[in-house]
Protein backbone atom coordinates (compact mmCIF):
# COMPACT_ATOMS: atom_id res chain seq x y z
CA UNK A 1 0.00 0.00 0.00
CA UNK A 2 1.26 3.48 -0.87
CA UNK A 3 2.18 5.76 2.01
CA UNK A 4 -0.53 8.04 3.43
CA UNK A 5 0.47 9.31 6.88
CA UNK A 6 -0.62 12.24 9.03
CA UNK A 7 2.04 13.70 11.35
CA UNK A 8 0.98 15.97 14.23
CA UNK A 9 3.55 18.69 14.86
CA UNK A 10 1.35 20.75 17.18
CA UNK A 11 -2.21 20.53 18.50
CA UNK A 12 -2.55 23.38 20.97
CA UNK A 13 -4.69 26.51 20.64
CA UNK A 14 -3.73 30.19 20.73
CA UNK A 15 -2.32 30.45 24.26
CA UNK A 16 1.11 28.75 24.48
CA UNK A 17 1.62 25.97 27.00
CA UNK A 18 4.42 23.60 27.93
CA UNK A 19 2.23 20.64 26.98
CA UNK A 20 1.37 21.49 23.39
CA UNK A 21 2.89 23.26 20.41
CA UNK A 22 0.93 25.57 18.13
CA UNK A 23 -1.12 24.03 15.36
CA UNK A 24 0.66 22.32 12.48
CA UNK A 25 0.46 18.99 10.67
CA UNK A 26 2.22 17.29 7.79
CA UNK A 27 0.47 14.88 5.44
CA UNK A 28 2.78 12.43 3.68
CA UNK A 29 1.21 11.01 0.53
CA UNK A 30 3.50 8.77 -1.51
CA UNK A 31 6.56 10.60 -0.10
CA UNK A 32 5.26 14.05 -1.03
CA UNK A 33 4.85 16.25 2.04
CA UNK A 34 2.00 18.73 2.51
CA UNK A 35 1.92 21.02 5.56
CA UNK A 36 -1.35 22.22 7.08
CA UNK A 37 -0.96 25.39 9.15
CA UNK A 38 2.34 26.60 10.54
CA UNK A 39 2.11 27.91 14.07
CA UNK A 40 5.04 29.34 15.99
CA UNK A 41 7.82 26.79 16.51
CA UNK A 42 6.74 24.54 13.66
CA UNK A 43 10.24 24.28 12.20
CA UNK A 44 11.52 22.82 15.50
CA UNK A 45 8.71 20.28 15.52
CA UNK A 46 9.43 19.46 11.89
CA UNK A 47 13.00 18.66 12.90
CA UNK A 48 11.75 16.36 15.64
CA UNK A 49 9.50 14.53 13.19
CA UNK A 50 12.55 13.53 11.11
CA UNK A 51 10.57 14.26 7.95
CA UNK A 52 12.72 15.40 5.03
CA UNK A 53 12.53 19.17 4.59
CA UNK A 54 13.25 18.88 0.87
CA UNK A 55 10.04 16.97 0.22
CA UNK A 56 7.84 19.72 1.65
CA UNK A 57 6.73 21.90 -1.25
CA UNK A 58 3.17 22.89 -0.36
CA UNK A 59 1.78 24.64 2.74
CA UNK A 60 -1.95 25.18 3.32
CA UNK A 61 -3.00 27.88 5.81
CA UNK A 62 -6.54 27.59 7.16
CA UNK A 63 -6.83 31.18 8.40
CA UNK A 64 -4.73 34.13 9.50
CA UNK A 65 -4.78 33.81 13.27
CA UNK A 66 -1.23 33.81 14.60
CA UNK A 67 -1.30 30.34 16.13
CA UNK A 68 -1.82 28.98 12.60
CA UNK A 69 0.73 31.06 10.66
CA UNK A 70 3.33 32.73 12.93
CA UNK A 71 5.82 29.97 12.14
CA UNK A 72 5.94 30.65 8.41
CA UNK A 73 8.70 33.27 8.40
CA UNK A 74 11.00 31.11 10.49
CA UNK A 75 10.39 28.10 8.29
CA UNK A 76 10.92 30.07 5.08
CA UNK A 77 14.15 31.54 6.46
CA UNK A 78 15.44 28.14 7.57
CA UNK A 79 14.77 26.68 4.12
CA UNK A 80 16.88 29.52 2.70
CA UNK A 81 19.78 28.72 5.03
CA UNK A 82 19.55 25.12 3.87
CA UNK A 83 20.04 26.43 0.29
CA UNK A 84 16.74 25.12 -0.89
CA UNK A 85 16.17 25.48 -4.65
CA UNK A 86 12.63 24.14 -5.20
CA UNK A 87 9.75 26.62 -5.14
CA UNK A 88 7.67 26.68 -1.94
CA UNK A 89 3.94 27.04 -2.62
CA UNK A 90 1.69 28.61 0.02
CA UNK A 91 -2.10 28.42 -0.26
CA UNK A 92 -3.92 30.96 1.91
CA UNK A 93 -6.21 33.97 2.04
CA UNK A 94 -4.85 36.74 -0.21
CA UNK A 95 -4.05 38.94 2.80
CA UNK A 96 -1.20 36.62 3.82
CA UNK A 97 0.97 37.64 0.86
CA UNK A 98 0.50 41.31 1.77
CA UNK A 99 1.53 40.60 5.34
CA UNK A 100 4.59 38.49 4.50
CA UNK A 101 5.94 40.40 1.50
CA UNK A 102 7.68 43.14 3.57
CA UNK A 103 9.21 40.54 5.88
CA UNK A 104 10.46 38.47 2.98
CA UNK A 105 11.99 41.57 1.38
CA UNK A 106 13.73 42.48 4.63
CA UNK A 107 14.82 39.13 6.08
CA UNK A 108 15.11 36.86 3.05
CA UNK A 109 16.93 38.81 0.37
CA UNK A 110 18.93 36.66 -2.02
CA UNK A 111 17.15 33.41 -1.17
CA UNK A 112 17.96 30.47 -3.40
CA UNK A 113 14.29 29.62 -4.00
CA UNK A 114 10.95 31.30 -4.66
CA UNK A 115 7.94 31.53 -2.36
CA UNK A 116 4.84 31.28 -4.53
CA UNK A 117 1.55 32.46 -3.03
CA UNK A 118 -1.78 31.02 -4.17
CA UNK A 119 -4.77 33.06 -3.02
CA UNK A 120 -7.76 30.98 -1.96
CA UNK A 121 -11.30 31.93 -1.01
CA UNK A 122 -12.01 30.25 2.35
CA UNK A 123 -15.73 30.70 1.83
CA UNK A 124 -15.83 28.65 -1.36
CA UNK A 125 -15.56 24.88 -1.73
CA UNK A 126 -12.98 24.39 -4.48
CA UNK A 127 -10.09 22.16 -5.55
CA UNK A 128 -6.96 24.22 -4.90
CA UNK A 129 -4.32 21.57 -5.64
CA UNK A 130 -4.29 18.56 -7.94
CA UNK A 131 -1.62 16.15 -9.14
CA UNK A 132 -1.35 12.48 -10.11
CA UNK A 133 -1.44 11.33 -6.48
CA UNK A 134 -3.86 13.61 -4.65
CA UNK A 135 -6.29 16.49 -4.85
CA UNK A 136 -6.86 19.04 -2.08
CA UNK A 137 -10.10 20.95 -1.74
CA UNK A 138 -11.23 23.61 0.69
CA UNK A 139 -13.91 23.00 3.33
CA UNK A 140 -15.60 26.34 4.15
CA UNK A 141 -15.77 26.77 7.94
CA UNK A 142 -17.08 29.48 10.29
CA UNK A 143 -14.73 31.33 12.61
CA UNK A 144 -13.85 34.92 13.52
CA UNK A 145 -11.78 35.34 10.36
CA UNK A 146 -12.34 33.76 6.93
CA UNK A 147 -11.42 30.12 7.54
CA UNK A 148 -11.42 26.83 5.69
CA UNK A 149 -10.42 23.26 6.30
CA UNK A 150 -8.80 20.98 3.76
CA UNK A 151 -9.89 17.66 2.29
CA UNK A 152 -7.16 15.41 0.89
CA UNK A 153 -8.39 12.85 -1.63
CA UNK A 154 -5.94 10.19 -2.77
CA UNK A 155 -6.11 9.28 -6.46
CA UNK A 156 -6.82 5.62 -7.33
CA UNK A 157 -3.84 3.57 -8.43
CA UNK A 158 -4.01 0.99 -11.26
CA UNK A 159 -4.73 -2.65 -10.51
CA UNK A 160 -1.83 -4.93 -9.68
CA UNK A 161 -0.70 -7.32 -12.40
CA UNK A 162 -0.62 -11.05 -11.65
CA UNK A 163 2.72 -11.83 -13.28
CA UNK A 164 2.08 -15.56 -13.54
CA UNK A 165 -1.09 -14.96 -15.59
CA UNK A 166 0.63 -12.47 -17.87
CA UNK A 167 3.31 -15.05 -18.59
CA UNK A 168 0.77 -17.86 -18.98
CA UNK A 169 -1.16 -16.01 -21.67
CA UNK A 170 2.00 -14.54 -23.26
CA UNK A 171 0.59 -11.04 -23.10
CA UNK A 172 2.81 -8.47 -24.86
CA UNK A 173 4.49 -5.86 -22.67
CA UNK A 174 2.90 -2.95 -24.54
CA UNK A 175 -0.54 -4.06 -23.27
CA UNK A 176 0.41 -4.20 -19.60
CA UNK A 177 -0.61 -0.61 -18.74
CA UNK A 178 -3.95 -1.02 -20.47
CA UNK A 179 -4.61 -4.19 -18.48
CA UNK A 180 -3.58 -2.44 -15.24
CA UNK A 181 -6.22 0.16 -16.02
CA UNK A 182 -8.98 -2.41 -16.40
CA UNK A 183 -8.97 -3.69 -19.96
CA UNK A 184 -9.60 -7.35 -20.77
CA UNK A 185 -7.18 -9.24 -23.02
CA UNK A 186 -8.28 -10.71 -26.32
CA UNK A 187 -6.20 -13.62 -27.63
CA UNK A 188 -5.48 -14.22 -31.30
CA UNK A 189 -8.27 -16.84 -31.54
CA UNK A 190 -10.78 -14.29 -30.20
CA UNK A 191 -10.95 -15.67 -26.66
CA UNK A 192 -11.38 -12.86 -24.12
CA UNK A 193 -9.50 -13.16 -20.85
CA UNK A 194 -11.33 -11.04 -18.25
CA UNK A 195 -9.32 -8.45 -16.41
CA UNK A 196 -10.25 -9.99 -13.05
CA UNK A 197 -8.21 -13.06 -14.01
CA UNK A 198 -5.14 -10.96 -14.81
CA UNK A 199 -5.07 -8.41 -12.00
CA UNK A 200 -5.65 -7.86 -8.30
CA UNK A 201 -7.70 -4.77 -7.44
CA UNK A 202 -5.71 -1.93 -5.92
CA UNK A 203 -6.47 -0.64 -2.46
CA UNK A 204 -9.31 1.89 -2.33
CA UNK A 205 -8.18 5.53 -2.29
CA UNK A 206 -8.02 7.17 1.13
CA UNK A 207 -9.26 10.54 2.38
CA UNK A 208 -8.29 12.91 5.18
CA UNK A 209 -10.29 15.94 6.33
CA UNK A 210 -8.85 18.73 8.47
CA UNK A 211 -11.35 21.06 10.20
CA UNK A 212 -9.87 23.72 12.49
CA UNK A 213 -10.86 26.36 13.66
CA UNK A 214 -14.65 26.38 13.49
CA UNK A 215 -17.87 26.57 15.43
CA UNK A 216 -20.23 23.60 15.32
CA UNK A 217 -21.14 23.43 11.63
CA UNK A 218 -23.32 20.44 10.65
CA UNK A 219 -23.36 21.39 6.95
CA UNK A 220 -19.78 20.17 6.50
CA UNK A 221 -20.85 16.56 7.04
CA UNK A 222 -21.93 16.19 3.42
CA UNK A 223 -18.51 17.15 2.09
CA UNK A 224 -16.55 14.95 4.50
CA UNK A 225 -18.91 11.98 4.50
CA UNK A 226 -17.13 8.65 4.98
CA UNK A 227 -13.57 9.98 5.17
CA UNK A 228 -10.95 7.64 6.59
CA UNK A 229 -9.75 10.17 9.15
CA UNK A 230 -11.27 13.44 10.34
CA UNK A 231 -9.33 15.96 12.39
CA UNK A 232 -11.81 18.26 14.08
CA UNK A 233 -11.01 20.93 16.60
CA UNK A 234 -12.24 20.30 20.15
CA UNK A 235 -11.09 23.40 21.97
CA UNK A 236 -13.51 23.06 24.90
CA UNK A 237 -15.60 20.60 26.88
CA UNK A 238 -19.36 21.05 27.01
CA UNK A 239 -19.01 22.80 30.38
CA UNK A 240 -17.56 25.71 28.38
CA UNK A 241 -20.26 25.70 25.70
CA UNK A 242 -20.97 29.41 26.14
CA UNK A 243 -17.27 30.17 25.66
CA UNK A 244 -17.18 27.96 22.57
CA UNK A 245 -20.12 29.84 21.04
CA UNK A 246 -18.61 33.23 21.86
CA UNK A 247 -15.25 32.37 20.27
CA UNK A 248 -16.70 30.37 17.36
CA UNK A 249 -14.95 27.19 18.44
CA UNK A 250 -16.26 23.66 19.01
CA UNK A 251 -16.59 21.35 21.99
CA UNK A 252 -15.38 17.76 22.00
CA UNK A 253 -19.00 16.62 22.01
CA UNK A 254 -19.76 18.70 18.91
CA UNK A 255 -16.71 17.29 17.10
CA UNK A 256 -18.00 13.80 17.84
CA UNK A 257 -21.48 14.67 16.58
CA UNK A 258 -19.94 15.83 13.28
CA UNK A 259 -17.95 12.59 13.00
CA UNK A 260 -21.00 10.45 13.71
CA UNK A 261 -23.25 12.31 11.28
CA UNK A 262 -20.59 12.17 8.55
CA UNK A 263 -19.98 8.46 9.10
CA UNK A 264 -16.21 8.85 9.21
CA UNK A 265 -14.01 5.90 10.07
CA UNK A 266 -11.93 7.64 12.73
CA UNK A 267 -11.97 11.00 14.53
CA UNK A 268 -8.94 12.80 15.89
CA UNK A 269 -9.57 15.81 18.12
CA UNK A 270 -7.14 18.64 18.83
CA UNK A 271 -6.62 22.42 19.17
CA UNK A 272 -6.97 22.02 22.93
CA UNK A 273 -7.56 25.03 25.17
CA UNK A 274 -4.71 25.85 27.54
CA UNK A 275 -7.16 25.62 30.47
CA UNK A 276 -7.11 21.80 30.40
CA UNK A 277 -4.29 20.07 32.23
CA UNK A 278 -5.78 16.69 31.31
CA UNK A 279 -6.80 16.20 27.67
CA UNK A 280 -8.47 12.92 28.55
CA UNK A 281 -11.51 14.94 29.65
CA UNK A 282 -12.04 15.92 26.03
CA UNK A 283 -11.43 12.38 24.82
CA UNK A 284 -13.97 10.98 27.29
CA UNK A 285 -16.61 13.46 26.14
CA UNK A 286 -16.08 12.75 22.43
CA UNK A 287 -15.75 8.98 22.82
CA UNK A 288 -19.11 8.78 24.57
CA UNK A 289 -20.70 9.79 21.25
CA UNK A 290 -18.14 8.52 18.74
CA UNK A 291 -16.03 5.65 20.17
CA UNK A 292 -13.51 5.71 17.31
CA UNK A 293 -11.92 8.89 18.66
CA UNK A 294 -8.27 9.53 19.42
CA UNK A 295 -6.41 12.51 20.87
CA UNK A 296 -3.96 14.45 18.75
CA UNK A 297 -0.55 14.79 20.37
CA UNK A 298 2.81 16.06 19.28
CA UNK A 299 4.93 13.60 17.29
CA UNK A 300 1.94 11.32 16.71
CA UNK A 301 1.89 9.60 13.31
CA UNK A 302 -1.33 8.10 11.98
CA UNK A 303 -1.06 5.68 9.07
CA UNK A 304 -4.16 5.56 6.89
From TrEMBL:
Catalytic center residues: 67
Catalytic activity reported: Endonucleolytic cleavage of RNA, removing extra 3' nucleotides from tRNA precursor, generating 3' termini of tRNAs. A 3'-hydroxy group is left at the tRNA terminus and a 5'-phosphoryl group is left at the trailer molecule
Binding site for Zn(2+) 2: 67-68, 213, 271
Gene Ontology molecular function: any one: 3'-tRNA processing endoribonuclease activity
Residues in Metallo-beta-lactamase domain copies: 196-272
NCBIfam families for this protein: PRK00055.1-3 (NF000801), RNase_Z (TIGR02651)
Entry similarity comment: Belongs to the RNase Z family.
Protein name: Ribonuclease Z
Gene name for this UniProt entry: rnz
